[in-house]
Amino acid sequence: MAVARSLRRTSPITFVLASLLAIGFLVFLLSPSPSESTSSSARQRQEDAAENPLSPPTKPFKKATSLRKDGRVAPPPVEHYALNKLTSTSNPIANDERVLILTPLARFYQEYWDNLAKLNYPHELISLGFITPKTREGDAATAALQSAIAATQSGPIDNRFASVTILRQDFDPPIVSQNEKERHKISNQKVRRESMSRARNSLLFTTLGPSTSWVLWLDADIVETPSTLIQDLARHDRPILVPNCYQRFYDPNSKKMSVRPYDFNSWQDSETSLELASKMDPDEILLEGYEEMPTFRTLMAHLNEPSGDPDTIMELDGVGGTALMVKAEVHRHGAMFPAFAFYHLVETEGFAKMARRLGYFCWGLPNYLVYHYNE
């Protein structure tokens, strides 16, 4: 049978090109457009939004629209939450686990906010909570924070956080100055850290919702972390985990930028520190990082290996709060930040001791670094 003239003249290349063009056209038709993806994300957020003012602050809120016959807004319904089904796993994204990032904030650093905004954990699963002091500096920090929040929350949908809560302290701070040297004077530590504990507890108990799986305490002067911070910490599946906090600085000896340890509150106890504590009055606290009070503890800050495995993990007796990842169940079971001498410890170190008394162990990552602002 003779082949048609038109087919005899058609090159095989033509068939290949036509097939590729057809496949490309089908992919174009079936792929969602950016606007469709954004609208889908917006719909999901709207469906997930809280219905009434008594709903958990860790979810986005939409004003109630249902009215009673007399024209008044209907009262909020009774909500039931199955906390036994709440998970905090090593793969939080796959399990849609909500993260509550809490920050006591006395000064606002744009670098802190920029770093926070770059975290690539799905922002619709992140809620933010802040507490600021009622001082002139606290007022300025609150105003700057609100501006940053407004810019982010009015931007692209995928960049917006699920919810944001700002609290103002209902007590006066014992130290008005936020100068670094003044903050870290040994004579100021007990009252300062007791005040910090009160602020942390106020923030925690106001914002912790029944859908929260993880709580990440992130200080307002942490200006650099990996964008995968949440996933990296959660992957270890530990109840309490803290990375190593360092600081970038200009070294006048080498005449170039370098790094140095900053947070010395993550440690393993020593016989010396235990003996010192045994001789203290009940209201006295043991402080770390001061030559006036040598404890000879093993400090995680000094165990960093620049080329070491970032997944190296060690058990700790005390933790700092610069970047502290906690399973929400630890807080729900009663572990908070003691604003009093608790076994001669206070604030984050006291929290570690309290968690241990509740059966939870603390862990640290000596080779995983986050960076503190350098004043």
Explain what the structure shows.
With 375 residues, the chain is α/β, with parallel strands linked by helices. It has one domain: Spore Coat Polysaccharide Biosynthesis Protein SpsA, Chain A. The protein contains eleven helices and twelve strands. Strands 1, 2, 3, 4, 5, 6, 7, 10, 11 and 12 form a ten-stranded mixed beta sheet that branches. A two-stranded antiparallel sheet has the order 8-9. Strand 6 and strand 7 form a beta hairpin. It is globular, with a radius of gyration of 26 Å. The N terminus is likely disordered.
Keywords:
Spore Coat Polysaccharide Biosynthesis Protein SpsA, Chain A, 31% helix, 19% strand, transmembrane
Give a short synopsis of this structure.
The protein has helices at residues 5-8, 12-30, 34-48, 110-117, 136-153, 180-183, 189-207, 229-234, 271-278, 328-332, 347-357; strands at 98-104, 126-132, 163-168, 212-218, 222-224, 240-251, 256-261, 267-268, 298-299, 314-316, 323-327, 362-372. The chain is α/β, with parallel strands linked by helices and 375 residues long.
In DSSP terms, counting alpha (H) and pi (I) runs of 4 or more, how many helices? 11
The gross shape turns out to be: globular
If you compute it from the alpha carbons, what radius of gyration comes out, rounded to the nearest whole angstrom? 26 Å
Secondary-structure element order, N to C: HHHEHEHEHHEEHEEEHEEEHHE
Going by helix content, strand content and strand pairing, the class is alpha/beta
- Our count of domains comes out at 1
Overall pLDDT score: 87
- Number of beta-strand segments: 12
Secondary structure: helix percent? 25-40%
- N-end to C-end Cα span: 89 Å
> Can you tell me the CATH superfamily?
Spore Coat Polysaccharide Biosynthesis Protein SpsA, Chain A
Give unreliable regions as ranges. Answer: 1-8
